[in-house]
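agent> call fold_tool(seq_1)
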Amino acid sequence: MRSDPARATGARRVHLIGNVDLDLVLGPVAPWPEVGTERIVARREARVGGAAGVAALALQALGVPFRLHARIGDDAFGEVVREGLGTAGAQLEVVRAGTAVSVGVAHPDGERTFLTHLGHLEELDLEAIANELEGGPPGLVLLCGSFLMPPLRGGGGLELARRAHAAGHELLFDSGWPSEGFTAPVRAELDALAPHLTLALPNLAEATGWTGTADVEAALRALERRGVRAVVKRGAEGASWLEGGEVRSVAAPRVEVADSVGAGDAFNAALIAALARRVELPAAVAQGVAYASAVVASQPRGYPQRVPG
């Protein structure tokens, strides 16, 4: 019987559930091109993407054992992703579908815009994932990229979260941005997940969109009223959360951003790596901010084997 590396080190087991795809990053672009025109960009990079894909690369670099619950298509793009993930690529379930592709357009201010084809993300075996979570020891589960995965929308994601929570897992959640915007049904969908979440990890736009608020403090307090503890990612401003009724923040170091695609996912990975080692939340947030800052400054994209500082 194989030993569990997480148990051997005393760390909590980590599960990643979410989207893995091929990212094509182009830029910088400003202003947005007019219809019918063409623009030449200075940089391009094809790499492993998706919220779970980036988190897997970061956790692997940091030496954190994890289980990746994700699929990939059986085409050339899928092969690029599997190879790019290294040993973690063997955990991907290969399905007869085109691999999802996301084009990330980087802008000079560090922001980015995405164009995504869902491809293989249209299907996911939630029952098999839930059964595996129920059959193993309680750990940390990162559920991410759910708005890009139809099986995780509405009832599917809610039932998976309920079963993970009931099995004793701590559920960390980063939905991403809904393509339809934060409509009333989208907010209701998120609110329904609230009782099952240990920690929400939205960026500032997602946090204010979810809560209908205008700033980070209002969003954090609105989420707290919903019973949701959250860490709000604020890009170059770092990250913030509520502690003892007060807003606490960790500032990000000043870096020259190559591109910010996947920044939040790198943050998630470093934070969950710290929590798996039972680091307290303030220090875990600081590690997430430091790690994400190093990742977005790398060109070509790289994932350090340790948290800077």
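agent> call fold_tool(seq_2)
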Amino acid sequence: MNERPSWDSYFMKIAEDVATRSTCLRRQVGAVIVKDKRILTTGYNGAPSGISHCTEETCLRTKFNVPSGQRHELCRGLHAEQNAIIQAAYYGVSVKGGKIYVTHQPCSICTKMLINSGIEVFIYRHPYSDPLADEMANEANIKRIILE
């Protein structure tokens, strides 16, 4: 019999699968919000529903040569974490007390949204340099776990 994966590995694998739906040209990110070992919502990064996907010609970050980790507002897309929170709101699902499994560490904007949505634990695979996100997560006592 095959050894079963841990819950963290299981949900991270699902986040990685969700990321394959991403329409972002720069980075594919997936997120899964979980509570009591049950999946509540998922999200991936990309343009909003009904808006055309980014192309090399329409990507604002490419057009304005925006470095990674800066000027998050200069993008047509939503982050995976934002889409997971929006999906919860759309369907009336409370994520308070939940965990988020995300392929990449949340940025400062997503960290603020996750804190206010009541997410208590961030679990991610790829660290992301954002000192403000780290500072806010620490101050809000958010538990953060990096999965190897």
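agent> summarizing second result for user.
The beta strands are 30-35, 38-44, 99-104, 121-126, 143-146. Residues 85 and 117 are 7 Å apart (CA to CA).
agent> awaiting next instruction.
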